[in-house]
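Dear Dr. V.,

Thank you for agreeing to look over these. As mentioned in my earlier message, I'm a first-year student in the group and I'm still getting used to reading structure tokens, so any feedback on how I've presented them would be very welcome. I ran two proteins. I've put each sequence directly above its structure. The first is here:
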Amino acid sequence: MTISRRDVLFGTAASASLAAIGGPLALGSPRSGPAPVWRLPAKQPFKVIENEWIPMRDGVRLAARIWMPAQAESHPVPVVWEYLPYRLWDDLRWRDDKTGENLAPYGVAFVRVDIRGTGNSEGIMVDEYDVPELTDGVQVIAWLAKQSWSNGSVGMRGISWGGINALQIAAMRPPELKAIMPMGCVVDRYTDDAHYMGGAYGEENMGWGASFKGHMAAPPDPQVVGEGWEAMWRQRLDATPAILQSWTTHQRYDAYWKRGSIATDYDAIQCPVYVIDGWGDPYESIIGDLLANLKVPRKGLIGPWGHIFPNLATPLGLDWPYEEVRWWQHWLEGKETGIMNEPMFRVYMMYEADSQAFPAEVPGRWVAEHVWPSPRTRSSNLYFDAGDRLSQKPNSREHLVYVGDKIVGLTKPQWVYGRPTEFEQTPDDRNSLLFDSAPLDGDLEILGLPIAKIRVSADVPVAQIGVRLTEVTPEGKSWLVTYNVLNLTRRESMEQPTALKPGEFYDVELPLYMIAHRFKKGNRVRVAVSAGLWPLVWPSPQIATLRIALGASHLVLPVRPIPTKEAPFTIPVIHAASDKDKGARGYANGLQWVKTPLTSPALPQMPTRDATGRIRYDRNGEPNSTFISAVGTTSTTASSRTIEVTEGDPTSCRMKFDHTDRWKRGDWDCTIQYGGDLTATAEEFHLKEWVVAKKGDVEIFRRETPSTIKRDLL
């Protein structure tokens, strides 16, 4: 697979749409009065400190780069930092430079820190968001606050890992941390992140776990750490754990996953939070959770992009320094910027699915809610009915039988990282149970979590259910709006799953990923039900036959009336990437930032299928080399991936990932190869993972770890 959603009409159109599906109308009461005018301050000179050592109490030193206004020593400034295991000295230098250049000229110092055991930082790393990482983070904040160029107020920002640990460290309440800006983050490590999607084993658990080994095992740079670099590298290699074994062993939402999951205690966060994401990223649902559950000053924003910073999104992004500097000036300097007088939640209302619009901008408009959950959003029920219909009332008492012997999910092969992440849905629709509304009499807008409430039985003790919400055009094209999947053994609890009793009906509630979407007049709303979504999740051990009780099953849509007026959108919009930015936007291979210019947009890969029914995603990526002129290093990466299954035989599934990274500068030449290979029977997983290191052409380390792990209702 190649990895890498609104001005203003109200009344008859929205009313007719709601009438067509039986939903009520209501309008909220937005605040009146224009937003105060705010402008970025004039740019000022800044300087970059290429390497700074930040000491920890146990003697370990963390490597940092610092961007600060030139006058900071005499006029101290607020400090914002980002904390990652992704190499700041070479691989992510370009992105860190972008962030520093977006903050330091406007009076906000930016500091980027390598987590211990990664990049050039000393020590070892053995897991994500581990206790040493978080306690180090608290110490870094205290150190930053005490620097002569700091005004003592610290903020934390970052996307993905950097957004997740910002939330976790904020929950530890370091007194100097005054505000955070997490992006693309999670509140529940088990279900929200790249591990167990709906309590089912995620393909991304394998993909990310295989890649993560490389971050733990990569060498430091002797240009920074000196002659002891090889001893540091060997220490890391010796400590690199069989991380996939650990993640595959913890198949329930146990204490392992609860550590760092702030959903267990939202009140632990006491500082202001501004959380951002894009509709192409499944992490966006977490924004609603944070806005609804936090008690601190908070804001949220979701745009029409994927797992990427708003300023790097294309073809429609935001001039993010405007908004970010405004946030930090308000909370780290005490300046009244007006940002907290504006709506709590801003989202882009998608007028088309991302894959429908790609590669052009998704048509739509920015909408605003002053509180979340919004009092103006109303639930509208669409009931599963005979004749493959969605109806306003629960008319039917029939049961529909669905045999899950076909692979469904090939039109949605990737979970995160880019746009688009899906194809037109007709191929998967053919193998699913379908329920369609009547053609809409007018435009219909939704904002929030659509919820599938389904009464279902299965003939096996372990089964999955997948639900896709699509918009169907008069021409018959089916475009994905949102989706989700659930391991039915986790229907009541992710902590204590229970086997299904064959033939017994259960009332299951499955929230789909959060979305803002306008269904167009004349189109249909479609619900597609299947017995899983592959390759997003590992298949259940046996083919399941599901029985769906029609009248008791329905979709709940969060309908947002189309208002007469929206609050003005104050952030400058970037409608196309400039030439200089084209090489710095998006993800490649789903796991690493693009390092070379994007020559053309890319769609997800469709699999091959042979005569035996074997479905296979295969990628043997050519090496990709980048010369990082600032440090004189050539960085080369290569990745291969095989994901395959034979239709009708769920125990034939296999997922294999293999990566090679090399760093070379003169006679400094280091290579690591790492990955994982997973197969399964009905009773157990068979896993192999490896890490190999070479200095030049000489192999200096090899570890291969085989594991047999019992399947726990998976």
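The second protein is here, in the same arrangement:
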Amino acid sequence: MSYFSDASLVYIPAAIKNGKTYSIKPTDGTGDLTFTRASSATRVGPNGYIEKVRTNYCRYSQAFVGGWSLLGSAVRTGGVTDPNGGTTAVTISSIPSGNLSAGIALYNNPMTIGAEPIIGSVWLKGSGTIGIALERGISGNYFFYITTITLTSTWTRYSIGGANAGARDGFTFYVCNRTGTTATSVDVAFAQVEFGDIATDYIATTTAAVSVGPVSGTPRLDYLGSDCGRLLLEPQRSNVQVNSESFNASGWNLISAGITSNAATAPDGYNGADKMYATGGNSRHINYGSTSGSGTYTFSVFAKAGEKNWLTLRLDDDSPEVNTWFNLSTGTIGTSQGGNPTITPYGNGWYRCSVTYTAASTKTIYNVIGVANANGAQEWTPSGTDGLYIWGAQLEAGAYATSYIGPTLGTAVTRVAEGPLNLGTAQTLNDFTLFFDGLLLDSGMLFGGGTSGWYMDITASNGRIVLDTNTGRKFESFSIIRANQNFKLAVKRTAGVIDAFVNGVKLSPSIQVTDTTALSLSSIFWGFSSTYYPKMRVNQALAFQLALTDQQAIELTTL
């Protein structure tokens, strides 16, 4: 049997665009799936790095017109060879001597700047010295970053800013003369202003700011632990740990520990990881944040071994603490005092470590990172600045860590849920087979008929599989399926009788009701409300408007 030729729907995550992910079959658009998520998100890209949404707020970042203003007697000439070998750079000449009033400036791009850090970057070439400056605010509410650069005959990227300077209402980015500088001409290319303390890869703009990455409405093909992209579908979560990538900023409290900022390449591929090292005498060497809340929380952080291999994570509300040691050299969990700890490899020596804790009532919940010198060690005496590397802290309400939400900068950030995926045209199922290959992050509905319709659901805690219609339950069985375990599932109906197969094994039903009512397949990875929206990683899904034999279902689901 050719499963592909006999299938009425073949979905393998590959082609995506904003608001849609495409089926492999049918190819006429009727099997394409609409997609919604009204926020940005992150994913692990095919290069193995975490991909975040990045934005360049500089308009006309190459042409240096429309929002850019020449100062004094300066002259702009276009068509200059840029760092990539194109001709998008400009030369600014006849720059008069003086201060910030001489040169070229981008004035007050329409935006609101909160207390988060902001950084400007630009490519320059020439001779002599020139200034660059980044000014936060307008209408007399100023905060300057300014530096003098010695130009060279080759293109070089320079950046400025990055510090948290308090809320302002706009920015001005200058390439300029200032007292004591000597250049009267400079080649300028690829300007960028972005939030954060690290200048990221350049994003070209024209009339408006441009964002790249898994922006709102874009499905995520995630490559964590896989050479093939898997569709990542998650519930709404908020990262309430502010300054999730800056561990000496507000929201963090160092005790017998220090931070070296931007000391190593982080899991996103940029040099934004901090080194946390032990200081002082015989004590715990920790850094902690906190929030007020109740219920279940999960705290996670990305970590990499330095001089020290042992990371500790603690989560508590001053009740008996959840505390776990993680070996960052071997990628294993050491001594653990509860908390369902996890450690997940992210490549290049990085691991994401997590612990979970439940507060019975509303209290201050503390999330603590520690540097240890051995498994189970609490207090120890350091020598020098021995430590390890950390990045991407996340404190979220929920029983497991979802994909990284960040950076949080000065405020919490929310990633909203991915909505149900609806087919362009519903398919009618009489005798049928439905197939899923992937893993669950939590309980979820795999196939369905829309609101007030039918659905197939799996409970991750006990592996229960059900198929319910609006006239009652037609099938129930229990399986080995659990959260975060890859599985293959086929559910088929023959003459009204439903059977299920998991990983090559036919299940014994606890409920099996004969029902020949036609079902309308209109959604996959479905949920009839935001509470039940999909929570899974999808390798592929198939639908057949026919029932496979038992042997075929066993063959299809064998791992």
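From my reading of the second output: The chain has three domains: 3-41+418-557, 56-212, 237-415. The first strand starts at residue 9 and ends at 11. Does that match how you would interpret it?

Kind regards,
E.
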